[in-house]
Amino acid sequence: MLGFRNRGTRANAVNRYRVRAALRSLTPDAREAVLVLCGGAVGGEIAEAELLAAYARRRGYTGPIRLDTLSRTTRENVRNAIALIEDADAIRIVSNSPHAELARAYLWELRPDLGGRLRRAREQCLGEVLYMKPYSAVRGIRALAEHDRGGRAGVFGGG
Length: 159
Known about the structure:
It is built from six helices and two strands, in the order H-E-H-E-H-H-H-H. The chain is mainly α. It has a two-stranded parallel ribbon. Strand 1 (35-38), helix 2 (48-58) and strand 2 form a beta-alpha-beta unit.
């Protein structure tokens, strides 16, 4: 799961949404499910991954968690997560949909063998985060277009 620039000491609204999406994306019949949470201290003093982990625990998640607390960009999120997901049979990248699509493109670019293990996440929930969808769609389209042109899409900023 990819974090979003967080300035405080608790997960912000976007990060709470992403944790909920990650939790509902876990496969109930998997022999093991692991949350991999990514994001450094981009907007505040506490790494986003740590804030995400704390919120997942408050939501009742008791399974294993792996953290990337160093990444500062989406590309770094993916690159740093590779060592944490190499042993996975199935990989779900969770964020808002356009951001997750960009991260999936990065994974395919960096490690096509892992890209082949990508599965659909359950990021969409009817009526959830309606205020965020138009804004994230515009930013996502720009980032994907920049990626397709061969540039480094950094419009998402943060981890």
